[in-house]
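Hi there,

I know you've been waiting on this one. I reran it after we fixed the sequence typo, so this is the corrected version. Both the input and the resulting structure follow.
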Amino acid sequence: MKCEVCGLEIKNKNTRHISKEHNMTVEEYYIKYLRENQREGFCYNCGENTHFISIFKGYSLLCADCGRRNRKGKISWNKGIPQREWMSEEGRKICSSTMIGRDPYTKGKPLCEWMDEKVNEKRKIKIRDTLKEKYDNGEIKSKSRFGENNPFYGKHHTEETREKIRKKLIGVHPSEETKNKIRIATKDTQFKSGEQHINWKNGASFKPYCPKFNNKFKEKIRDRFNRKCFLCLITEEEQMRKQQECGKRSFKLSVHHINYDKNCLCEETKCKFVPLCHSCHAKTNNNREYWESEILHKLEIYLQEN
């Protein structure tokens, strides 16, 4: 360690040089030249003055009273304090270097495996109450999650991530507890059926398709787009393979009416079609105005490039 005043090397932690040559106490020297944080020297819990340990260790983080209570497990001295305020930059770099290449012990594990059951239950209640309060105050709205307001807008899972999710969900079925919750939530179904249903479209699902919308026409649309889903670009062959692996019946790509008009071919009105996979076709049934404009915009770009 070098003296900050004269540059002399201080060996064997001998601090007599400071008081003898520079006429100041070790604590005064530390405050003037070595203290990095103005908060150092005051208790992080109550704000009282703390004990000066040495020129090499600085001040203790807690006062005597808080230190005693901390040893008994009643308080945590750094609770709610950013790490940059109580740990030096060198210390943070050392902690960071020790974690490089190491996965956290909680990675890939559900909360119930590594968190105490009571703590986990309290955490769930806290999250639920916070979200409920935000919904009641209007801070969170369901429509705000669509389109560009969605944090995942414009992003896509990698093939590796999709494969992991697919394998994780193979053979997964809802528990009896989940089934009972669904039964209770949908017990009174009278207000959710017919014209009272949120997705009611004047009985459009009961109306027949135009006879011109046949298998020959569908095959033509699929071939036009190289038998790929227009939104996620999954191939028809890959969709059928994944459906078979999951033990489901395999289907070809669906042909989607962009304007949601079943009779547009018979009425000879201008209408456009795109092939969609089973997943993307299901998504387009909700928020139809958004999906119609989104697909038309992408189709315009696609036609310009091709």
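Quick highlight: The chain has a mean pLDDT of 79.

Best,
R. S.
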